[in-house]
Amino acid sequence: MKLLWLQSGGCGGCTLSWLGSEHGSLFRTLADEGIELLWHPSLSEVCLDEALTLIEDCATGRQPVDLLCLEGALLRGPQGTGGYHRFGGRQPMIDWVARIAVRARHVIGIGSCAGFGGITAAGINPADACGLQYDGEVGGGLLGPNYRDAHGLPVINVSGCPPHPDWITETLAMLAQGRLTAADLDDYGRPRFFADQLVHHGCPRNEYYEFKASAQKPSDQGCLMENLGCKGTQAHADCNQRLWNGEGSCLRGGYACIRCTEPGFEEPGHPFEQTPKVAGIPIGLPADMPKAWFVALAALSKSATPQRVKENATADHLMRAPSVKKGRK
Amino acid sequence: MNEPTRRIVGPFNRVEGDLEISLDINAGRVQAAYVNSPLYRGFEQILQGKEPADALTLVPRICGICSVAQSAAAALALADAAGIEAPANGRLAANLTLAAENMADHLTHFYLFFMPDFARSDYAGRSWHAATAERFRATVGSAANEVLPARTRFMHMMGLLAGKWPHTLAVQPGGSTRPLQGSEVYRLHRILREFRGFLESVTFGARLEEVAALDSRDALSAWQMQGAGDLRRFLAIADDLDLWHLGRGTDRFMSFGCYAEEEGRLLPSGVWHDGAQALDIATIREDISHAWYAAAGEARHPAQGGTVPVAEKDGAYSWCKAPRLDGQVVETGALARQVIAGHPLARDMVARDGGSVAARVVARLLELAIVIPAMERWLAAIVPGEPWCIPAPLADDTTGAGLIEAARGSLGHWLTVRRGRIHSYQIIAPTTWNFSPRDSEGQPGALEQALAGLPASGEGALPPAIHHVVRSFDPCMVCTVH
Question: Domains of chain A by range and CATH?
Fold first, then answer.
């Protein structure tokens, strides 16, 4: 399998995340999976004219491409020219991507920028950024909603800002082994092996969540949903099961999940680290939760909160340890 | 003199982003270089109108390799605007998080971005080529495959300190969102010790303290003969190719300083040009005469600056603005930091031959030997149970500046808040300084100066020396324009 990796309107953070693969040296893993890196802008020796020739060959079909990975959003501006990113200072990157995508066996959007536009599309979206097959939540983007590869797959979106390194590696390995089918992708083209989970699953703050014992300020140990903007109950990803950089996740780091695997996360309509509420009730409810039940359960659980959980929720270290049973022989 | 031949070279890779350079070549030499940063995303426009604290989410995403440095600059700008200072644990956590990123960047640059150029077939005739190719060839060399697992393990520090890397929200104006308990401090300690072990056996073949104590070029040359390790491999190549006399820039160095201690900073701010000079931030101006931005009068200080991109402009050739310090071109990076901090080896390297490819690379590795022990000290100073973060309430109309050092040099954020929203947010990144285009006086940027005079021809393969000079600055192109 020959892999071509291109970068456009992004930060390079997907590649940097990927290099932290937990499966040993990334280069050895790829080789072991039968994936050959044709070219990667951060990692390959080949550059300048030699690289341009190789990429031109990919665009004409002289060099077959099995896996086209794009990192970063497609920049259509200014005025539809693509001039905000001319690859190597010459042709617009959107033209290169469009030419190679129609010939590649599979097209993979690495990160939420390549998938949906992402952070690069935030605010006034100065560069007119979009994703490969989505413009935010709307089908479209550079390749259009009807794009399918020769195997009937849409653009495969390994979303996230950045994606977990092993989401990328495992997706590529599944493709290399011919194991990824349309049924393995969710409604936004995200591999279900990570997108069918919620960030909430495995959150270490679960006891605080159960009792709605909430953090009031950064560094508090309580649940981050009620006040500090956490969307872990709505965000599709396995961040608290797989863990980041060994033993991390956003929640474990003490800050909100901003649902970075979802299209449109860059414009939540409120400050990222504050929970929008109506009459004291958070507007964003947990996935699949009826509002009336959420309100009823929250009220009940708040009134049932153990003192230990209440005190620890608004402190940055353990105020009260779980009690130990004593006196039995 | 003949008319020069214009040659456009790009894409450069292993520069964290995209880069193109135009070379005017005359009589076998580069007569003039024009550096183009070809990607514009518009973060300064994206930030306008946002809640000030949203900068903490948005600005790290300028760059996947300087992500924490961007967070730290934003947090400092917000802390400055709020008039607060983080408690001791918060300060120590911020130091550790920034240092973990900067040290990983030095490692990544040396092994993955810079050294693979010596494995190129251009050097097939050199005595060291076969061994270097085996060790450093891109993606297949033995070094990369040793370094990646060590880097992954080292970045487990980020899992504990910052939740994840890149793009954390743990770095806040009031400190850190991540209180560490005793056993977590111990886990961090083990990771640091493992990384020290890796550096001492693989990179240096020596104790970190021994490397940090090298106090002159002569001491370095003597040390070079005494053992193994990848730094010594590089030094042998540097001597053979005379990388000590390649890529001299302006020899005017600048650092904003970083790693706040109880008193002062581990690496202080300053300017060095044939001696120490004071750094006057007020004299910074961003010139846009040769960049694709709408001109609005004279070059401005970033606190008064703006960003209005234009598709076409006479004389413009980059999306990178041209920052100048008191009208001067400065070089920023690990060499600048160590010269300004007064490290005797850095001072001696610059006194002898000025800034060079070799001096920049040595300074970067020297910094690993200096900062890892400092990280061990900061970790030991953490007191679990003491505060980690304080509130940072912001007035509706206020300003702030955040100045910090990313791995590759000085990073500044300038924030103006009006009616509770971001009115202006201007960023000058390290590579904006180093890879700037010309200014209205026609002064070329630091890389443009470093490339002038190098041997080159109008066609055929570009001499590898040009690659070494470009990458010796450890450029980060995504930060450059942002």
Answer: 2-194 (3.40.50.700), 197-318 (4.10.480.10)
Residues B114-130: pLDDT tens digits? 999 999 999 999 999 99
What value does the mean pLDDT take over residues B233-250? Answer: 97
Closest among B223, B249, B246, B247 to B235, alpha carbons compared: B223
Cα A232 to Cα B119: distance, rounded to the nearest angstrom: 46
Cα radius of gyration rounded to whole Å, chain B:
22
* Residues on chain B touching A27 (C-beta within 8 angstroms): 139-140, 144-145, 148
Helix, strand, coil percentages (3-state) for chain B, rounded to 5, are 45, 20, 35
- Whether chain B has a CB inside 8 Å of the CB on A273: the answer is yes
- Determine, for residues B140 and A124 on separate chains, whether the beta-carbon distance falls below 8 Å: no
* DSSP H/E element including B176: strand B175-176
Give the DSSP letter of residue B3: P
Chain A stretch 120-179, residues whose beta carbon is closer than 8 A to a beta carbon of chain B:
120, 122-127, 129, 161-162
Domains and CATH numbers, chain B: 40-481 (1.10.645.10)
Q: Determine the pLDDT at residue B268.
A: 98
With an 8 Å Cβ cutoff, are A43 and B179 in contact?
Answer: no
Cβ separation of B179 and A316 shorter than 8 Å? yes
- Scan for tokens 């259509």, then name that residue: A76
Distance CA A142, CA A134 (A): 8
Kindly report the nearest CA distance between residue B158 and chain A, in angstroms: 6
The DSSP result for A17-62, as a single string, is HHTT-SSS-HHHHHHHTT-EEEE-TTT-S--HHHHHHHHHHHHHTS
Q: What is the largest CA-CA distance in chain A?
A: 80
Report the C-alpha gap between A139 and A300 in whole angstroms. 41
| Interacting residues of A76 by C-beta distance below 8 A, sequence separation 6+ | A82, A94, A127, A128, A129, A130, A142
Amino acid at A279: A
Strands (E), chain A: 2-7, 36-39, 67-71, 74-75, 106-110, 129-130, 134-135, 138-139, 156-158, 277-278, 281-282
Mean pLDDT (chain B, rounded) = 97
**What percentage of chain B exceeds 70 in pLDDT?**
99
d(CA B255, CA B271): 7
Please tell me whether residue B253 adopts helix, strand or coil conformation: strand
The tally of CA atoms less than 13 A away on the side-chain side of residue A127 is 36
Which of these, B309, B307, B289, B311, lies nearest to B298 by C-alpha position? B289
Dmax (CA) of chain B = 72
CA-based end-to-end distance of chain B: 39
Per-residue pLDDT reduced to its tens digit, B333-369: 999 999 999 999 999 999 999 999 999 999 999 999 9
By the CB < 8 Å criterion, does B201 face chain A?
A: no
The three-class DSSP label of residue A248 is strand
pLDDT in tens, A36-66: 999 999 999 999 999 999 999 999 999 999 9
Which segments of B337-397 are extended strands (E)?
none
Does the global pTM surpass 0.90? yes
Would you place residue B244 in the very low, low, confident or very high pLDDT band (cuts 50, 70, 90)?
Answer: very high
B18 inside 8 A of chain A by CB: yes
Contact between A147 and A98 under an 8 Å Cβ cutoff? The reply is: no
Mean pLDDT of B209-218: 98
| A87/A80 Cα distance (integer angstroms) | 16
B87 to chain A, closest Cα gap in Å: 12
Helices (H), B225-356: 230-241, 334-341, 344-353
Q: Do A47 and B63 touch (CB under 8 A)?
A: no
- Check pLDDT > 70 for residue B1: no
Contact indicator for B120, B462 with CB cutoff of 8 Å: no
| ipTM higher than threshold 0.90 | yes
